[in-house]
Amino acid sequence: MLAIHDRPGSFSDKWIEYCEKQCLSYKIVNCYSSDIIEQMSNCDGLMWHWGHNDHKAALFARQLTYSLEASGKYVFPSAATVWHFDDKVGQKYVLDSIDAPIVPSYVFYGKQEALSWAESANFPKVFKLRGGAGAENVRIAKTRKEAESFIRKAFGRGFKVKNRLNFLKERLWHFKRDRSVKSFLNISKGLARLLLPASAERNFLRERNYAYFQDFIPNNDSDIRVIVIGKRAFAIKRMVREGDFRASGSGQIIYDPAQIPQECIKIAFEISKRLGSQCLAYDFVFEGYQPLVVELSYSFARKVYLPCPGYWTEQLEWVEGNFFPEFFMAEDFAELCDTREGHDL
Q1: This prediction's pTM
Q2: What confidence tens digit (pLDDT) does each residue in 31-43 have?
Q3: CATH number of the 88-215 domain
């Protein structure tokens, strides 16, 4: 039997729908309950889509995953898939360890070491916190002076994981782009956030005592996002925001498969196979003609990919037609768990 943690609005919506359509055996469980291990006693595996903004999940989701796998059960996302989720420093280490084509990255755990590096480094550089999505917590250090300012703050009072001013700026940028009633009303959320911090801001500790930089790769007006789920890959091209260097979160997306370099698909498949991951999203930029991985994530905004016109197989063969990514996840996991007909609620 398959266990699913039901979180409305997440991957679980389509996981449940898939199980219903395929008459697969499943039951709903609550991963936040103290008796989750007992709830899993008659199940073969657990599917739980937890996000980077969930401070409660961040406390124990990985530990629960490791524990269930140690007991012989399957988990989506598996430990191999999720251990580096929302951790750009962890991603640097794992990509370096398998000699993947990664944007050159630098991490420091001492202020003087970081300042000494900055003295001889070429700029600009991109400064990042370990966590965040949609270009959140990503800044540009155009000069050594700016890099040193980031470093001193990193080894001083540190950075808030959720920045209220940046949240408002993001809402203003979306209004400037969309000019819609919805984007205008969202500005009020940013204003409210200035006065009333969200629970994520209150519950996540400041990021401090490390500094993480990546080389700035110039002449990229876009990036390529490739998602590999099992033996399938689909991709989009994201244009860089006007007057910015970031493509993530821009909302300016091209779905034409002809604009996706095949080398990105090939590299993504190869890395997923090396890491033994069930599902990974890869962000690529280009240095000349060489695609370089910027970062990884098992989770993604599902609605963005619904217009994708098809996907590639491991043999790089194109399969035409729209699809639900969550169905791919559930299909692979059901085969892994050998689920049977019928279901329990």
Answers
A1: 0.87
A2: 999 999 999 999 9
A3: 3.30.1490.20
